Records
---
Amino acid sequence: MIIQSAEFVASNPAYHTCPPTDKAEYAFIGRSNVGKSSLINALLNRRNLARTSGVPGKTRLINHFMVNNAWYLVDLPGYGYARISKKEREKWEEMIRHYLLKRSNLMCTFVLIDVRIEPKPIDLEFINWFGEKQLPLKIVFTKADKLTRVATERNVAQFKRALSDMWDELPGYFITSAETGEGCEELLKFISAENELYTQWETDRGK
Ligand code: GTP
Ligand code: MG
């Protein structure tokens, strides 16, 4: 897919004030510092569309970007950020859960995992929650440029083993680097195919 245009649309505190659900939508989520904003910028070929920040846990809103006037990419606040109160964290997690469960045009959520870090309960629990709710997800391993190919494959295999207790058929995954652009084309290709599905559904629904 060629990115012809990409623009910020809006930041919203709740799913029901988000833009109209008339376009296919893809959400990006992961722990703070996993490389979410960097990957979004790499995918869209923009230096600073999604803000990369030195202050973790800053993004607390649902951020919509429109791509090629055809689909939405959504930057969600990271989960598991420790330095906030329990009450605030619960409120934030509820907002994300509501969005993920209720946003009708959400085609797929990409859960980002730093490929250097061993499987953490918070990531596994989050991914398993998708399985429980039968929501579509793909795992996106980030920062692959920081490891050798062998180490990357070893860590991916370890992550798959950690999931295999809960999953009969493991979720699909991409191995990416915002630094080298690895995996970006594959990810965009996947989105492109999903966009076609969405258009097909819309056409069928209109019939
Ligand atoms: P929050 O918005 O704070 O939750 O963080 P984020 O997940 O958006 O992470 P961000 O993109 O801001 O990146 C965090 C740090 O990791 C920055 O210093 C980036 O430069 C670095 N980083 C992100 N992706 C990559 C990558 O693919 N390779 C390398 N080497 N560094 C990366
Ligand atoms: Mg960010």
---
Amino acid sequence: MISEKLQQARDFEARYMPFIPDSERPLFHVTGGIGWINDPNGFSLYKGEYHLFYQYHPYSIQWGPMHWGHMKSRDLIRWERLPVALAPDMSYDQNGCFSGSAVEMPDGRQLIMYTGVHRQRRADGVLEEHQTQCIAVGDGVNYEKYEGNPVLAGADIPAGNSTLDFRDPKLWQEPDGTYRAVVGNRTADGSGAVLMFKSADGFHWDFVTVVDACRNEYGRMWECPDFFPLDGKQVLIVSPQEMLALGLELHAGYGNIALLGTWENERFTREKVQSLDYGIDFYAAQTLQAADGRRIMIAWMQNWTNSNCQPRGVRIFGQMTLPRELSIRDGRLIQNPVRELENYHGHRVAYSDVLVTGETNMEGISGRVLDMTVTVRPAGGTYHAFRLNVAKDGEHVTSIRYKPEMNTIRVDRSRCGIRYDVVHVREFLVRPRNGKIKLRLVMDRNSLELFVNDGEQAASFIVYTPEDADSISFQAENGAVLLDVEKYDLEFDKEG
Ligand code: FRU
């Protein structure tokens, strides 16, 4: 049954979305139909297609009572919009259908698990927001909320833990057909933990264990957990709130970290922690496993702290990152754009062994929708820095600056066109190989995703720069570099 609230959201989209021209959207990054989006939800395979839902408030470009928007794709690059999937229309989710996940059930239905939010006023007048886990089942377009909702509530979590912060279930199916889910929760010490639950049928759930806990070390509350095996390791992904910076590895505020370890006898042993993305705009990452076994991750390409800093006149706000293939190399989590992107490689321009001193342009190298790889090495002597300037005109520029002496990359978007006094610079450590550094840059109108040294680091940025600022320059400071450059335009009018 389609509730009045859901119908209202679908009608609203149908009525107003046509007023938003394609030119206001990125070409291959997921956006909402209209209004606001945040976290990716329900990123999963269903009947051979990739489905992606998202936290959605169609009625304004601000966060509001959360709905689930919905898209699907055959190749993770081109997406087809589907009707809004969930609306906050039940007593247990009347204040929002928060983040969650989806799997295909053996009977062919799609099972969604999400967080239902309802506000309640305490006797002393304080308004509290209670969070429970709920189920909806559907056919890939329409979903029915389960009559037994909520399926996980206060009685299911360890004593002392809070139901005010109990959200973002990520579920999957085990090889034996049973289900598991991890859920973010706040423990008695005020910091986050990841709880694991199990179920034989997807509807009845039992607590298994606390997978890992923050203990106020990596932020406070841990949102949006994900948990999966990868290349012989077990990976726990969380989105911490209120992090303190740690060198150049973790920045303050909302972050996204990967905890690498082992999972044996229902016990996670944490071995290593790393940042998932070293840029400004990346949060709430979620993964799926593709039919060919690849682990693929997508995230909200935005940061909560500056999510109110919207350019005047935008009618859609928020977009997803490019889906990224994950692997583990030398004990690090590696991420690269999904290989399907290469099916859209169009016109190619390439140069090798270009000697650069000072600042230079290269014939045919410009654009705002592209996939470009630049390999930098010293030209004999030393150099102070190499700078790649993109989305550039007389007034605007975003620069990626590598300093060999410090092994740092510093991305500066302070002249990209965003006129708000927020963080515009990120710096992080990289590992050159034989003096070489490789920068792969994927741009899609107002975003820039950087992959360093074949995915050792990724860094995502929103750049609200006028689209005709499309110049690219290469610059050596105090010395000379040798560059190899390969640039593809990305073309979407041909079949992928
Ligand atoms: C993370 C988050 C989730 C929550 C959702 C609400 O960005 O705060 O924890 O489910 O957004 O929209």
